[in-house]
């Protein structure tokens, strides 16, 4: 591993601090939440830790090219700056300069100083002489003044002829000036002012060790007539204690789950024989560990390798470390029996081991031969008596299974941190131990690098314990596509995968060998996997010939070195140190060169030579980035549900859209956090016997990339992807939507086959505040209406648009046309002069200032942090991306002043009379309000936008706001789309709450009854089923207040005028058929974070519950919670699932796997009796594909007559 650049380290430290504040429990925290790693800190307690820690200004090495640390010498023809003086450890009367020897009678002394940094450590400089001199010769300090015996405390500066004497000596230092006789060459003795400045001991009981450079700097300033600011120093020991304390407090925050099992080890310090464990590694030892840190001393030598062996003995827990015996020292360093010594903290295969070695010096008193050959494959020869065995010990600990009786290999990874030390040995130790090497020079840098080291350990721990994090998957035709990624440690870019499998006629997922791909016992993929293809592999193979586009000046542009400039990317040459380049292979001299490297990196070239092989034209370690929230979306031949539209169908007519593209290649579109929307080949049509009907099929494709597209909003992020220590970067992270829409290219209002267009609309989610619209109709098009493929249509941005979490919904609306055009709006003839407009509808997105469950929320327009972003809904014309309709917060409106919360949910867009036009939209906000927007009227645009007086909206449901402990309000946020269906001819909506942006929220239990779901605080999430008897028209927005839950705690009379929902939390079914619906609470912490389904009269969904503190790890080392499936009758809420505990009784919910779920899907098959079995299929963040073999929803034996599949 390479030594880490300090600028990147400090940047990450700041980035992490910001990120933790904004996303305390985001997706990554949950998905990567694994068993805390064991981290042993090997703390340097040698005597040199008493040296002062000084800022950069005071510690620069002296030298002839560094005048800042030389005295101010008179400028005349006979004076010059002195040569460099060496530091020696002899009597001060014998110290000499580094020049030609002792002085002669021709020497001309102007000023002379002698400096005593310390007398307490023979290995450290004790005196330094500096003098003005005649260039003809150089003096010895012995000729200047007989200073006598060395000082015994503090540090002393003694100088002749100091301007002003003690006048400019900073306060806090002791100073005196007296006239003393001074011997001059030639036998003349004169009396001159002699000034003595004494610095106190700092933060240690014995003599403190000051740097000569610091003392030089003080006297230099005084001689110039300045009064220097005295640096209030601390020694290295105090700085290291402070840094370790800050590290433990940062990682294991009081009141939160500890992230790390810290342990502490130190050097022996008495006989310099190795070291011992002061505090054993444990998850709950924070108090004792911090107390032990405060008592660590600084004395003795630096037995680096011997102590590392002792730490290894402790971790092994038995006589398995080379020829060493079992660890046998107690926490005071005494030798004890092995059984009474601290035992190994590694008790499970989930425990991953890391050692962080912190040292300010190279090994001393470290000559143990470490028993035999296992530790003697060394770098260099042992010639100094203190043999540098440390790298070999680190290699042994990494190569050896320290706990062979436990499943999997339990080895130790060693990190090194040099404190005021930059040593090749520490680099070798990290290299051999598979860790990282960091260097630091002061307290702040040490704190930063320790934080960075442990943060890197946490990422590696997630990688080691769960190599793959499933993120999304999709079904299309007979294809099953799954995406997953591996945490990338300190990289900004993480490796991703997109794999293709197939589903056979028995609904079994099969691999390329037509074998089952999923283990029915674990619901996990068999390893190693054998997919038909993996896009990660195809990009590695094709990196040099990829086609990548972006948007420049509103037009599609090639993303190449000739087409993209440094200005396009925002690249500055000053950013070069942030890139992990190999300086032996790369030398950037201009911003354009750096920009070219960024472009090449994006294509897949190892443009910064991260593998240090001297080449920048080979392929990177991986090319495809992580696919996180973006579900893969497959587009193939046209679907049949628009077959009655003019020009679209039927397939039998040669000029229709369906005929033209009936054999269109399947293409899989997916966004990734590598900054691109990708298009992969997912199958082509094959007709082996054209004369035979029924043998046609689509292949699985080869997964090769057709193109990639970088949206304009993402372009500024591209330069950060090659960097390390930037934190996780999100780019094209939203869920795309696609539809075939009609665009009147000929402007003749006639629907023609060439007008129909397949539009792909891609939001960015946390990656940005825009949507990208591409025409992907014809993968072979080079020109025409649909070319060149992909044709950029538009990119939508707006000042009120937040992070585009809301998946857009395509539909068409009725728009007033000019007189005489006629009714061209659907099958009815009552619309007057009317034309259709194809649109996309989406919420304004997520924004932290619009999330009322965050401290950053504000609804005060006068607040500096107030933002309108996210508070609204948009209707955008598909043809050009212009706004046709909009809902937005308006403080002056009784209705729209309520739009004070962000709206990241996907809208539910309904066509109530089945005429092909949208009539009403339902969408929830983060304040727990469900909005309704009536679009049934013919829209009359004013300045291009239909006013809300024609398309009115309002709140039709308000969830209660809970007051939790301390009076903090908690809102029942609606992040997901509502599902809708007619039940007994009444439109019925199903929707739920859940902390999608804070998955770790566990709720607050009622202290009087923790098991009572209906508790004191009532911040429990809900699922609501709401009836809307008048969805549109004059009665859609009654004067009375919107529907509201009937409050149960505290018991109060329902508010007059509110529609009432029946609480079914503890009821088997809804006893009141005439109410406005029902709801039920779920236990503390459980939340609904996916979309919901209504199928055959049943509601189906999945939920997620985070684990409680201290929860045990699952078999795959995951402690991130549980997924449960839910199903019940839409009509009355009666349970629809068979209880797995008895196989007979019915339940609404049951746990189906570990981790957080993806959106559920419905699969349908028949059992042996012919009964249709409906199964809820989901994949969790642990990789489990849940598709229960029994106990799913059941229907009586019927024939399926209709199935509609959208893109």
What this model shows, in words?
The protein is an alpha+beta fold and 1207 residues long. Among the domains are: 269 residues, Rossmann fold, CATH 3.40.50; 178 residues, no CATH class; 327 residues, no CATH class. A 10-stranded mixed beta sheet has the order 35-36-37-38-44-45-46-43-42-41, with no helix packed on it. Helix 9 links the parallel strand 12 and strand 13. Helix 5 packs parallel to helix 10 and helix 7 runs parallel beside helix 8.
Draw up the topology in text.
Layout: H1 6-22, H2 27-31, E1 38-43, E2 52-53, H3 56-59, E3 112-116, E4 128-131, E5 155-160, E6 174-183, E7 189-199, H4 212-223, E8 234-235, H5 236-251, E9 261-267, E10 275-282, H6 286-294, H7 304-316, E11 353-359, H8 390-399, E12 412-419, H9 424-432, E13 437-440, H10 443-465, E14 469-476, E15 479-485, E16 496-503, E17 509-510, E18 533-534, H11 535-542, E19 548-552, E20 555-558, H12 566-569, H13 591-603, E21 633-635, H14 657-660, E22 666-671, E23 677-683, E24 685-686, E25 697-698, E26 705-710, E27 737-742, E28 756-763, E29 771-775, E30 791-796, E31 809-816, E32 834-843, E33 872-877, E34 883-888, E35 908-910, E36 920-924, E37 929-934, E38 953-958, E39 962-963, E40 969-970, E41 979-983, E42 986-992, E43 1022-1028, E44 1043-1045, E45 1060-1063, E46 1077-1081, E47 1093-1095, E48 1098-1105, E49 1122-1129, E50 1137-1138, E51 1146-1147, E52 1149-1154, E53 1161-1166, E54 1172-1179, E55 1185-1186, E56 1193-1195
Parallel strand pairs: 1-9, 1-11, 11-12, 12-13, 19-26, 38-44, 44-45, 45-46
Antiparallel strand pairs: 2-8, 3-4, 3-5, 5-7, 6-7, 9-10, 14-15, 15-16, 16-17, 16-18, 19-20, 21-22, 22-23, 23-26, 24-25, 27-28, 28-29, 29-30, 31-32, 32-33, 33-34, 35-36, 36-37, 37-38, 39-40, 41-42, 42-43, 43-46, 47-48, 48-49, 49-52, 50-51, 53-54, 54-55, 54-56
Helix pairs in contact: 1-10, 5-6, 5-10, 7-8, 8-9
């Amino acid at each position: 591993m390479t030594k880490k650049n300090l600028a990147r380290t400090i940047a990450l430290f700041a980035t992490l601090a910001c990120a933790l504040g904004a996303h305390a429990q985001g997706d990554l925290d949950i998905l990567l939440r694994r068993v805390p790693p064991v981290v042993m800190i090997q703390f340097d307690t040698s005597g040199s830790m008493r040296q002062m820690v000084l800022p950069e200004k005071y510690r620069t090495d002296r030298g002839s090219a560094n005048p800042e640390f030389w005295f101010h010498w008179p400028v005349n023809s006979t004076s010059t700056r002195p040569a460099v003086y060496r530091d020696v450890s002899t009597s001060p009367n014998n110290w000499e300069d580094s020049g030609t020897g002792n002085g002669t009678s021709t020497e001309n002394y102007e000023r002379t100083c002698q400096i005593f940094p310390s007398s307490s450590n023979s290995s450290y400089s004790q005196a330094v002489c500096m003098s003005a001199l005649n260039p003809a010769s150089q003096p010895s300090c012995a000729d200047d003044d007989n200073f006598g015996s060395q000082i015994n405390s503090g540090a002393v500066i003694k100088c002749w002829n100091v301007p002003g004497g003690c006048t400019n000596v900073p306060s806090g230092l002791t100073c005196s000036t007296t006239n003393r006789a001074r011997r001059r060459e030639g036998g003349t003795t004169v009396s001159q002012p002699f000034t003595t400045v004494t610095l106190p001991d700092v933060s240690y009981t014995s003599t403190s060790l000051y740097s000569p450079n610091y003392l030089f700097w003080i006297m230099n300033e005084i001689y110039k007539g300045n009064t220097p600011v005295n640096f209030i120093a601390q020694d290295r020991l105090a700085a290291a204690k402070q840094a370790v304390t800050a590290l433990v407090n940062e990682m294991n925050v009081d009141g939160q789950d500890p992230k790390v099992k810290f342990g502490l080890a130190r050097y022996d310090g008495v006989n310099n024989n190795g070291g011992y464990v002061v505090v054993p590694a444990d998850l709950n030892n924070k108090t004792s560990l911090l107390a032990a840190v405060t008592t660590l001393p600084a004395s003795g030598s630096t037995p680096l390798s011997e102590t590392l062996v002792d730490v290894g003995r402790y971790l092994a827990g038995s006589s398995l470390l080379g020829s060493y015996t079992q660890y046998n020292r107690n926490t005071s360093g005494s030798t004890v029996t092995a059984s009474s010594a601290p035992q190994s903290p590694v008790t499970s295969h989930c425990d991953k081991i890391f050692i962080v070695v912190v040292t300010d010096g190279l090994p001393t008193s470290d000559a143990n031969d470490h028993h035999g050959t296992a530790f003697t494959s060394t770098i260099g020869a042992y010639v100094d008596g203190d043999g540098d065995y440390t790298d070999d010990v680190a290699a042994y600990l990494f190569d050896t299974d320290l706990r062979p009786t436990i499943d999997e290999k339990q080895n130790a990874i060693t990190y090194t941190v040099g404190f005021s030390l930059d040593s090749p040995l520490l680099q070798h130790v990290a290299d051999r131990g598979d860790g990282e090497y960091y260097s630091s020079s002061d307290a702040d840098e040490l704190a930063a690098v320790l934080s960075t080291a442990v943060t890197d350990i946490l990422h590696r721990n997630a990688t080691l314990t769960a190599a793959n994090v499933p993120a999304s998957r999709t079904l299309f035709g007979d294809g099953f596509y799954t995406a997953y990624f591996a945490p990338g440690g300190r990289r900004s870019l993480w490796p991703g995968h997109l794999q293709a499998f197939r589903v056979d006629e028995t609904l079994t997922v099969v691999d390329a060998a037509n074998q089952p791909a999923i283990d029915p016992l674990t619901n996990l993929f068999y390893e190693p996997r054998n997919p038909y293809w993996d896009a990660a592999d195809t990009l590695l193979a094709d990196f040099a010939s990829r086609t990548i586009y972006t948007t420049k000046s509103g037009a599609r542009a090639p993303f190449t070195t000739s087409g993209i400039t440094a200005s396009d990317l925002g690249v500055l040459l000053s950013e070069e140190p942030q890139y992990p380049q190999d300086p032996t292979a790369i030398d950037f001299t201009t911003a354009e060169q750096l920009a070219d490297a960024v472009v090449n990196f994006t294509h897949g070239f190892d443009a910064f030579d991260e593998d240090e092989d001297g080449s920048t034209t080979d392929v990177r370690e991986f090319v495809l980035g992580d696919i996180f929230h973006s579900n893969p979306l497959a587009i193939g031949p046209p679907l049949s549900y628009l077959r009655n539209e003019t020009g679209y169908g039927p397939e039998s007519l040669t000029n229709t859209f369906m005929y033209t593209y009936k054999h269109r290649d399947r293409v899989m579109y997916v966004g990734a956090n590598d900054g691109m929307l990708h298009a992969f080949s997912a199958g082509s049509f094959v007709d082996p016997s054209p004369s035979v009907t029924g043998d046609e099929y689509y292949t699985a494709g080869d997964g090769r990339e057709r193109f990639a597209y970088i949206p304009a909003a993402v372009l500024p992020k591209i330069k950060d992807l090659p960097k390390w220590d930037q934190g996780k970067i999100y780019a094209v992270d939203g869920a795309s939507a696609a539809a075939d829409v009609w665009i009147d290219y000929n402007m003749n209002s006639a629907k023609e086959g060439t007008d129909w267009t397949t539009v792909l609309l891609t939001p960015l989610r946390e990656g940005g505040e825009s949507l990208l619209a591409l025409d992907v109709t014809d993968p072979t098009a080079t020109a025409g209406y649909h070319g060149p493929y992909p044709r950029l249509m538009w990119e939508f941005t707006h000042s009120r648009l937040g992070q585009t979490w809301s998946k857009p919904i395509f539909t068409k609306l009725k728009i007033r046309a000019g007189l005489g055009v006629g009714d061209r709006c659907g099958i009815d003839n009552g619309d007057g002069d009317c034309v259709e407009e194809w649109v996309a509808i989406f919420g304004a997105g997520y924004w932290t200032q619009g999330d009322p469950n965050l401290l950053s929320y504000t609804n005060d327009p006068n607040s500096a942090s107030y933002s309108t972003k996210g508070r609204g809904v948009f209707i955008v014309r598909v043809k050009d991306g212009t706004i046709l309709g909009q809902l937005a917060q308006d403080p002056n409106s009784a209705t729209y002043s309520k739009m004070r919360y962000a709206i990241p949910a996907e809208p539910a867009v309904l066509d109530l009379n089945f005429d092909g036009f949208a009539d009403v939209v339902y969408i929830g906000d983060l304040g727990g309000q469900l909005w309704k927007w009536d679009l049934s009227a013919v829209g009359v645009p004013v300045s291009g936008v239909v006013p809300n007086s024609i398309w009115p909206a309002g709140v039709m449901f308000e969830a209660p706001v809970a007051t939790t402990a301390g009076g903090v309000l908690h809102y029942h946020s609606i992040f997901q789309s509502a599902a809708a269906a007619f039940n007994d001819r009444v439109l019925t909506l199903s929707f739920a709450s859940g902390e999608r942006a804070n998955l770790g929220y566990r709720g607050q239990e009622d202290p009087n009854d923790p098991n009572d779901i209906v508790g004191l605080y009532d911040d429990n999430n809900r699922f609501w089923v709401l009836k809307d008897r008048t969805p549109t028209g004059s009665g859609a927005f009654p004067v009375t207040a919107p529907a509201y839950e009937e409050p149960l705690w505290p018991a109060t009379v329902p508010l007059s005028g509110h529609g009432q929902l029946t609480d079914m939390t503890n009821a088997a079914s809804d006893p009141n058929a005439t109410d406005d619906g029902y709801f039920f609470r779920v236990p503390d912490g459980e939340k609904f974070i996916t979309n919901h389904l209504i199928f055959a009269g049943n509601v189906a969904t999945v939920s997620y519950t985070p684990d409680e503190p201290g929860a045990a790890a699952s078999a795959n080392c995951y402690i991130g919670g549980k997924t449960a499936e839910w199903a019940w009758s839409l009509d009355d809420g009666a349970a629809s699932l068979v209880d797995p505990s008895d196989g007979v009784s019915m339940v609404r919910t049951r746990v189906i796997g570990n981790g957080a779920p993806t959106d559920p899907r419905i699969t349908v098959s028949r059992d042996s009796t012919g009964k249709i079995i409906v199964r809820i299929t989901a994949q969790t963040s642990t990789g489990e594909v849940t598709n229960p073999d029994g106990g799913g929803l059941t229907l009586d034996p019927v024939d399926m007559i209709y199935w509609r599949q959208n893109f």
